[in-house]
């Protein structure tokens, strides 16, 4: 198999995997925990893929809401993003952040919902 074909297959696999909602995290706008962390995303958004992939390596508990599958979520995102469906949009205890970095999101979690902040100094339990 040629190296370029391998790269193409890996890129395709990453595209598929990062566009799937995580098991146990997918929610609708109505069912999401608005007192915690909610990540609003849409399929195909490279910024969403980047943030969601980076969050998978943290212990942060959060809900994911696909704005293309939920009109209420899309309306909420437009209400906090100047009428645009700019994603990822994240809420932390109801405070909206449009296209935050992982570090900005984790800082907001430490500030507004410290009980949800991932404790990276503690080893994982086996």
Task: Describe what you observe in this structure.
With 126 residues, the protein is of the alpha+beta class. The chain is built from 4 helices and 4 strands; from the N terminus they run H-E-H-E-H-E-E-H. The chain has a 4-stranded mixed β-sheet, with helices on both faces. Helix 2 links the parallel strand 1 and strand 2. The radius of gyration is 16 Å and the shape is globular. The termini are far apart.
Strand content: 5-15%
Unreliable stretches (pLDDT < 50, length at least 5) are 120-126
- Span between N and C termini? 38 Å
Beta-strand segment tally: 4
**Global shape:** globular
Q: Secondary-structure element order, as H and E?
A: HEHEHEEH
For the biggest β-sheet, the strand order reads 2-1-3-4
Number of helices: 4
Helix-residue proportion: 25-40%
Chain-averaged pLDDT: 87
How would you characterize the largest beta sheet?
4 strands, mixed
- Work out the radius of gyration: 16 Å
Instruction: Kindly name the structural category.
Output: alpha+beta
Protein name: Glutaredoxin domain-containing protein
GO molecular function: electron transfer activity
Domain Glutaredoxin: 37-95
InterPro entries: Glutaredoxin (IPR002109), Grx-like_ET (IPR051548), Thioredoxin-like_sf (IPR036249)
